[in-house]
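protien #1 (seq + structre)
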Amino acid sequence: MEKLPQIINYQGKQAVSAKDLYEQLGFDKSNWTKWYRKNISNNTFAIQNEDWQEVVPSTRTKDFAISIEFAKRLSMMARTEKGERIRQYFIQCEQKAQEVITHTPEELLLQNVQILLTHGQKIRTIETKLNEIEARAITSPQDYFAIAGYAALNKRWIDVSTAAKIGIKARAMCKNLGYVMGTIPDPRFGAVNTYPKEILQQVFKDFYK
């Protein structure tokens, strides 16, 4: 009989060991660290404590408890026949679990509301991450942002005059606190300054009181 990932109960929810899934997908064990960083811990579209949680390993190898839904997505991303079989296995397990559970209309309504709230939170989290990625595309790495980029990240319209005033405050705060400013090319002005995210958070907060 083909070995399949074991579904476990982790903190009251059904989950799967990410390392177990990785091995059952037939991936090279030596690439485990690279794989989980790309697909789990650094995955823009995976939400910690919703899709995955890091668990204290019983061995020296790091592991994660991942939701069944996330496990299905990772199996599909493998793009292999085995990955598809495992994904179908998870779907069948969910269907069997649903057949056993019966709910009153009130419980079903509450369950649907909770699902909508969870999905809404996931969408908002992903939108925030996408906005930050977009802002970084017109700024610099390492949590440094141009004023226009930071304004776009926070969905604020800003004109040149206002940006200049904010820039004066941000430069003064960087000087007082010993922060180093950065620069990036700008097609309109040749180059613009970038500032640490925490500096811009405070300046924008003070400016838009």
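ok now protien #2
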Amino acid sequence: MTDAVPAVPAATVVPVRDGPDGIEVLMLRRNSKLAFGGMWVFPGGRVDDADADPARPDDELAAARRAAVREAMEEAGIAVDPGDLVPFSHWTPPEAAPKRFSTWFFLAPAWDVGEIVIDGSEIHDHAWLRPSVAVEQRDAGDIELAPPTWVTLWQLSLMSGTEDALRRARERQPRRYATHVVFTDRGMVTLWDGDAGYVDGDADRPGPRHRLWMLPDGWRYESTLD
């Protein structure tokens, strides 16, 4: 058994606004030749050494905030106030993943961000999407999403609007997702802390659920923690 690839610190910002039919998020489509190629993602990337807060050099969350602000400008041309960023979740991929990022997800209000500017190189397209529509498009095979993006969209689809999403995020601790992947006769399922099968990988173990079924006929999130 080989050692896990070290997880690189990263940060993602989820710009949210209220559209005519409810909450919307800004999503970007990555160049198909790059990491996560062709997927629709939120603005984000690795945390650079320069993102460390000089006053708090060991503050992981502060560095992630600065990286999120920088990436929002670099990838979408939008200015985000670091004080507006609300920690939403933290994601670590399975130890067997060939490339691993330890990523903070932040919500950011985006009522007046202006025109979205993408570079046409790293980012090939953008769209403001209702979270529920993005989830439906993935199941229809129209777009590709990574599990952290999908779960974030699913959770936001339950919110009544931007203020509701920001309020809920401020009122709770950011949930941490250290992912375990299990293959069953039904298909692949990702398990997170709090699931009855998380420790031993037994997806059939009775008990609480905190998982994402990634099945051929669609993805399904189960959580008894919410």
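The first helix runs from residue 60 to 76.
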